Give the backbone structure.
Amino acid sequence: MSELSPLQARLLEMLKWFHQLCEKNDIRYFVLGGTMLGAARHKGFIPWDDDIDVGLPRKDYEKLAQLMANDDFLPYVLETPYSKAKDYCFSYSKIYDTRTTLVENRRTEVVRGVFIDVFPLDGLGESYEECEANYAPINKKYDLLLTTVGGIRKGRSWYKNLAVVVARCVPHCLLDGKKLMIQLDKMCAKIDYDTSAWICNDMGAWRLKEAMPRSIMGKPTKYQFEDTFVYGAEDFDGYLTHLYGDWRRLPPKEKQITHHDFVSLDMNKPYR
């Protein structure tokens, strides 16, 4: 087991709890993106990474939301696009550790805790060409949402930051982030994961690039992650090659950095 930062250690604790919860309740999940890459290449965290991404087929995603609909699982809580909190501005779900305080840079700063990103996995079509057609309206809606709720970020292209500034001038009644989140979630859920030839994490950072044959995800398969085990894609090489190309090669030193836009983090202060 590698030496972990305090944030990574807390995330690992959350991931162990999440894994046990899913196993106990027969909920399928896969670690995604950098978490799957870390499991395959490092048998744990990518050393410079500081997040956990998991994806659940839509039926399991909704089952998890129903299961965690109250505070029975404190110190962990799940928030979704349907949560009552007006400042929640994500089109997917997050599990928060209420014992911590983490502030994310958005149009309105989101004050919560250390989190795991929880994405729904949905069907997208019977061929890549069909996926392209089905994803186009999702992509436009997602761009609109990010422009509406996003914050200005260093390193982002000037025109994207300008779009965020312009969106702030539009009255809330005409451009409602909450409504956009729910509309987007319903658009993504139209095609069943378990019967679609191609599936996608529609809200993932890679957008349409995350569309792939469902056979690549296959059956959730166990992989070592630090001192525990987690579920990932059955064809982990196919999954990682699809997203990253030569995933076994480390990026250059200047790119070995986190990509999160945190305003502040306090590991010992409850946000509630």
In short: DSSP finds eight helices and twelve strands in the chain.
